[in-house]
Amino acid sequence: MSADEARARAHALLANGRTAEPVPVAGPTFTEFEVVYRTRRRSDWRPGTWRKYEGYTRTQLLPAFRRQQLAAITRPDVARWFHRYSEKSPGGANRALSILKNMFHCAKDWGLLPDTHVNPCRGIRLNRRPPRGRLLNQAALSALGVALERHRLRHPDAVEAIRLMLLTGCRPGEIAALTWEAVKADRLVLAQTKTGPRTILIGPAARQLLSQRRRRQPLRDSPYVFPSPRNPSRFRSVSEAAWYAIRSDAGLPNDVRLHDMRHNYASYAVMGGETLLITGSLLGHRSAQTTARYAHLNDQHLLDAAGQVAQTISKWLDPARKASRIT
User: Fold this and answer.
1) Could you tell me which CATH class the domain 24-129 is placed in?
2) Structure confidence by residue, pLDDT tens digits, 251-268
3) Among 8, 48, 118, 175, which residue's Cβ finds the most Cβ atoms within 10 Å?
4) What is 138-300's CATH topology?
5) H or E stretch including 199?
6) pTM of the predicted model, to two decimals?
7) Tens digit of pLDDT for each residue in 301-312?
8) CB–CB of 265/283 below 8 Å?
9) Structural domain boundaries in the chain
10) What are the residues facing 97 on neighbouring strands?
11) Residue 284: left (phi > 0), alpha (psi -120 to 50), or beta?
């Protein structure tokens, strides 16, 4: 209907004291668009991305919006759903909202929504993510080193994989799927990671570990640095049982995860004087905010820093020093 017709209908309904019935919105329903979206996007996704998308869509997005026309979904609709989901899983709500936001973005780009359409996810703030992970101090790292040595014969692959995580800052999945083709003289050239292709520079300790492993494992046996013993054409991840045994032997808390090896790499880089920019480059982060979440600092390092700052300020506050500068 035209604008004049709409105004006339609204005035007539108000005069009669009735509430206007919603005008049908053209375009696909959310369920119909979801089929189009996953069909067009699936070829761009890695298997892990596809599994996450399928899980969040099936359990959260479709139950919430399946019957609505895509163009009729409003910001209050999204906000109500996001708030309810956030009460159960703040992190899951953040990830599902990112998927939904991209769905609306693509729908507009593909001409399924008008150019004037405003993404209903816009303006909804993500839940704040508290820093996760444990920083292992020097004593804990020493205990872990002793435990790794004790388990070298029982869990040789797990021991060397954990050492590589600590020495390179790589994610557990990146080390598990590492191929010999990606191992160069002084770097790892990964074709696919969580943030896309990236190059990881490695120091002497990591190079020595890989060199020794290559000598023990002929290249023809498997393309993977950590192949599956049952099927060398597949890679082998660090088993939870092996990690739990090593962690327990080292006396580490039960909430220390394999991914915390990456956190420790970042933290010791920052405590060693590296900037967030350099540390983020080593870890393959796209933003310094992500790196900052990883850069845990231990109490002794903060105490030393506080002492140095206070000592500097104290010198300038010293009346005797001030008098000598004036004279």
Assistant:
1) mainly alpha
2) 999 989 888 888 777 777
3) 175
4) hpI Integrase; Chain A (1.10.443)
5) strand 198-201
6) 0.59
7) 555 655 565 565
8) yes
9) 24-129, 138-300
10) none
11) left
